[in-house]
Amino acid sequence: MGTGPGCCHAGVMGIARFATASLIFLLCAGGVSRADPLFDPTTGLRMSAYRAPVPPTVPGGQVVTDPARVARLADSGALLIDVMGAAGYRIRDDGTWITAESHQTLPGAIWLPEIGRGRQEPAIAAYMHQALQMCSEGRKDRPIVIFCLSDCWMSWNAVQHVAAAGYSRVFWFPGGTDMWQLMDMPTRTAVPLPFGARHCATRN
Question: What count of other Cβ atoms lies within 10 Å of the Cβ of residue 74?
Answer without folding.
Answer: 17
